[in-house]
């Protein structure tokens, strides 16, 4: 794993070393070694632009190391050259990291870019992206836009039941604020039907249940 991390971090200088070795091998008429070096340099060159440091970013995010993840993601200088599924993940992770640092404008810009990146390999993640955008809009105080975005997310489909429950809870809260208690209660029932397991969502569900029982309609 350390070797792979070293290779990803120092891929560019490794390319120059491989090319230099290829040139030296050509000079000494060792054409086989030369073409092996050139081939490895070419493959590394493609990987540098098409995959970047996304593997390290994902590892850092999984380990909860936000600062490292931001450091690695900044190493990707040409995100438009990334493979489509990796590009979509890049923008989504960039949005998550911006959200973690409370940069809502950057978070919104990145998630919209992820929405524009379609890939058949990873499948349709429109619902997940719309959910993220809706949550960002809520933090921005754009309740009306957030309501529509979250409704679009539900229509597009969200594969994770915990995430779907979170969306229904937010829609429930929005409808109650709009004095649409009947609609709000319906969203609450849908959230409960998802049977979420995430501790935070379960807490929100229990808290909402206490409050919603007192509402008329």
Task: Please give the count of helices.
Answer: 12
The chain-level mean pLDDT equals 89
Count of DSSP E strands? 0
Give, in order, the helices and strands: HHHHHHHHHHHH
Q: Any idea what the radius of gyration is?
A: 23 Å
Instruction: Outline the low-pLDDT stretches.
Output: none
Largest sheet: none
The amount of helix comes to: over 70%
Describe this structure in words.
The chain has helices at 2-9, 11-27, 31-50, 54-62, 66-73, 84-100, 104-116, 126-139, 143-156, 161-177, 181-193, 199-212. With 217 residues, it is mainly α. The chain has a domain at 1-50. It is elongated. The mean pLDDT is 89.
Which tags fit this structure?
mainly alpha, elongated, 12 helices, 217 residues, 76% helix
Write the layout of secondary structure elements.
Layout: H1 2-9, H2 11-27, H3 31-50, H4 54-62, H5 66-73, H6 84-100, H7 104-116, H8 126-139, H9 143-156, H10 161-177, H11 181-193, H12 199-212
């Amino acid at each position: 794993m350390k070797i792979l991390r070293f290779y990803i971090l120092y891929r560019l200088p490794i390319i120059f070393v491989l090319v230099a070795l290829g040139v030296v091998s050509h000079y000494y008429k060792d054409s086989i070694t030369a073409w092996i070096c050139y081939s490895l340099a070419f493959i590394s060159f493609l990987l540098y632009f098409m995959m970047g440091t996304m593997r390290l970013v994902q590892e850092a995010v999984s380990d909860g190391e936000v600062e490292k993840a931001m450091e690695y993601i900044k190493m990707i200088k040409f995100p438009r050259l990334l493979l489509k599924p990796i590009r979509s993940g890049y923008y989504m992770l960039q949005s998550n990291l911006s959200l973690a640092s409370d940069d809502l404008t950057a978070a919104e810009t990145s998630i919209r870019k992820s929405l524009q990146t379609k890939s058949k390999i990873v499948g349709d993640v429109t619902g997940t992206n719309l959910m993220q955008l809706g949550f960002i809009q809520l933090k921005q105080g754009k309740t009306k836009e957030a309501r529509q975005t979250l409704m679009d997310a539900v229509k597009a489909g969200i594969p994770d039941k915990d995430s779907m429950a979170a969306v229904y809870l937010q829609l429930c809260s929005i409808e109650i604020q709009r004095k649409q208690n009947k609609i709000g209660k319906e969203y609450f029932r849908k959230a409960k039907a998802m049977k979420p397991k995430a501790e935070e969502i379960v807490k929100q569900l229990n808290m909402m249940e206490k409050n919603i029982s007192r509402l008329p309609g």
